[in-house]
């Protein structure tokens, strides 16, 4: 190992959408800060952010039934849906700024308009969907949502789903045309190209193997260059651990107290992908169903039109499963090596609590292709096995921590930003709603880690994200304005794009 320390202002670990977003925000806020990125793989966006490893849903809570719950009095709680929708509007504003400033181009290479639909079957679920529609359609954030339980209308919206449907159970759907399909892999690569144009050093095939604090308050990283085996020491004033599933191990290495008593629970995924172009052409929407009883929220089945490699595709899934790896390219020892003296009790408590989930995930792994086809046939009754292949999706590491509400070892389904008390290091854990909310999550991180600079940065933040610091729900008059300006910049509406 070389004894020379290589100094920089900021180090971002991992070249996924989170580091790409944080790097792009910081480059606009403080162009002269030196930023270095270390990525252990050969290119950007190869893990969860890759287009084949996630579902590409621009999560705006337009169709995901798990973001709205039924309260004991039977009314529908849409507060989580409002939060996620507002976060997605923030992402769209930042992407629009990048496009309008010509920092990235061709928005259609990463974002496409696509109706978002929720589909349910059975009296109880139809009743729930109707109530949900009534609660949401009056809210300006969800304007334009339609509901139907008329089979003829549904056949118009969803020809593939309604053809050859023999069940006489009630069926209903909601549809909203302002949804999107986002190619987060393409966006990540575009953002890294942009960062490299701005002199950010992006070092691929370099893994960060250790992190420690130096006596002068900097963070020192031990970095291995996999091309030549050389190990170097790099120091920075601020480090972001954006290693996706790899973040927990790195956070533990940093030794910060905020990273203790936290564990990770990996959930793997499989998509079915349609290889028959005639079938692909008959569907044009993201259609989310309801998770089966006992299934975790990330395994809600959905049938999605996707735009990948400039081609329309059709994917179904994800089927959740269990693998001890924390990254798709990770190690079978990831889970076991994440158990430390400070989190062993938390992990054991979670293990005892989540037996049913573990059993469910293991059963899911064992499903044959034909059994998966049976689940797909709940969406497409006449789906043929020969038209579909299986593809392995990314790994999601759900956070396990002790909470007041859930007690010791509670499994979390959201994302968590963990920061040191002095803001010099931060890590992102968890996976949902994920990439769609990357901009809001990174803004929250910036606020926590750079409290001295945030006021000075506010004008630039408002230039990039006009509703920065403003709740859209409290200012409904802004909603239409934001929709129009982002739809125009991101070319989400043909008429607006033409009038640019
Ligand atoms: C099946 C599935 C479906 C999903 N669907 C959606 C969806 O529809 N919409 C949505 O918004 N989100 C979705 N997500 C979530 C979304 O994909 C993630 O939240 C997001 O991609 C995470 O980005 P990231 O940058 O944190 O991690 P990643 O993209 O995983 O990037 C982390 C990077 O860090 C690198 N790395 C790790 N350890 C080290 C190390 N020690 N040294 C150097 N480099 C390292 C890795 O190689 C990797 O490139 C889905 C995820 C999965 C798995």
From TrEMBL:
Pathway recorded for this protein: Carbohydrate metabolism; tricarboxylic acid cycle; oxaloacetate from (S)-malate (quinone route): step 1/1
Q: Which InterPro entries match?
A: FAD/NAD-bd_sf (IPR036188), MQO (IPR006231)
Coiled-coil stretches: none
Q: Name one GO molecular function term.
A: (S)-2-hydroxyglutarate dehydrogenase activity
Keywords assigned by UniProt, alphabetized: FAD, Flavoprotein, Oxidoreductase, Tricarboxylic acid cycle
- Biological processes per GO annotation: tricarboxylic acid cycle
EC number, as in UniProt: 1.1.5.4
Catalytic reaction equation(s) = (S)-malate + a quinone = a quinol + oxaloacetate
Q: Which of the seven top EC classes does this enzyme belong to?
A: oxidoreductase
Cofactor(s) of this protein: FAD
Task: Provide an example Pfam family for this protein.
Answer: Mqo
Q: Give the matching HAMAP family.
A: MQO (MF_00212)
Output the NCBIfam families linked to this UniProt entry.
mal_quin_oxido, PRK05257.1-1, PRK05257.1-3, PRK05257.1-4, PRK05257.2-1, PRK05257.2-4, PRK05257.3-1, PRK05257.3-2
Q: Which family does it belong to?
A: Belongs to the MQO family.
The name of this protein is: Probable malate:quinone oxidoreductase
């Amino acid at each position: 190992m070389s004894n020379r320390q290589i100094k920089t202002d900021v180090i971002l670990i991992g070249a996924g959408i989170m580091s790409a977003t944080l790097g792009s925000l910081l480059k606009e806020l403080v162009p002269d800060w030196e930023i270095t990125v270390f990525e252990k793989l050969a290119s950007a966006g190869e893990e969860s952010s890759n287009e084949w490893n996630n579902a590409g849903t621009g999560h705006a809570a337009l169709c995901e039934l798990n973001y709205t719950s039924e309260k004991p009095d039977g009314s529908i709680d849409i507060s989580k849906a409002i939060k996620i929708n507002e976060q997605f509007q923030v992402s769209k504003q930042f992407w629009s700024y990048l496009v309008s400033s010509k920092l990235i181009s061709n928005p259609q290479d990463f974002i496409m308009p696509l109706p978002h639909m929720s589909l349910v079957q059975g009296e109880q679920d139809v009743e729930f969907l109707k109530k949900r529609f009534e609660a949401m359609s009056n809210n300006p954030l969800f304007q334009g949502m339609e509901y139907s339980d008329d089979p003829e209308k549904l056949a118009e919206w969803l020809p593939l789903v309604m053809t050859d449907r023999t069940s006489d159970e009630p069926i209903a759907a909601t549809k909203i045309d302002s949804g999107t399909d986002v190619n987060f892999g393409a966006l990540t690569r575009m953002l890294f190209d942009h960062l490299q144009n701005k002199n950010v050093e992006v070092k691929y095939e370099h893994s960060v193997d250790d992190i420690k604090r130096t006596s002068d308050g900097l963070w020192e990283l031990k970095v291995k260059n996999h091309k030549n085996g050389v190990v170097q020491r790099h120091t920075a004033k601020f480090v972001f651990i954006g290693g996706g599933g790899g973040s927990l191990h790195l956070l533990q290495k940093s030794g910060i107290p905020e990273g203790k008593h936290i564990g990770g629970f990996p959930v793997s995924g499989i998509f079915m992908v349609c290889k028959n172009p005639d079938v692909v052409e008959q569907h044009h929407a993201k259609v989310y169903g309801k998770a089966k009883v006992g299934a975790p929220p990330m395994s809600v089945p959905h049938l999605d039109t996707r735009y990948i490699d400039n081609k329309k595709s059709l994917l179904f899934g994800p089927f959740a499963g269990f693998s001890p790896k924390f990254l798709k390219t990770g190690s079978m020892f990831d889970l076991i090596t994440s158990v430390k003296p400070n989190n062993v009790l938390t992990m054991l408590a979670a293990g005892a609590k989540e037996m049913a989930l573990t059993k469910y995930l293991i059963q899911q792994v064992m499903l044959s292709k034909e059994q998966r086809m049976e689940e797909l046939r709940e969406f497409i009754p006449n789906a043929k096995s020969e038209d579909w292949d299986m593809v392995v999706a990314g790994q999601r590491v759900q956070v396990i921590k002790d909470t007041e509400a859930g007690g010791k070892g509670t499994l979390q389904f959201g994302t968590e930003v963990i920061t040191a008390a002095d803001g010099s290091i931060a890590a992102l854990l968890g996976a949902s709603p994920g990439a769609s909310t990357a901009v809001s999550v990174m803004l929250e991180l910036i606020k926590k880690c750079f409290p001295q600079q945030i006021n000075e940065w506010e004008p630039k933040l408002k230039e990039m994200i006009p509703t920065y610091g403003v709740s859209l729900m409290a200012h409904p008059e802004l909603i239409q304005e934001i929709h129009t300006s982002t739809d125009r910049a991101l070319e989400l509406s043909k008429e607006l794009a033409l009038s640019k």
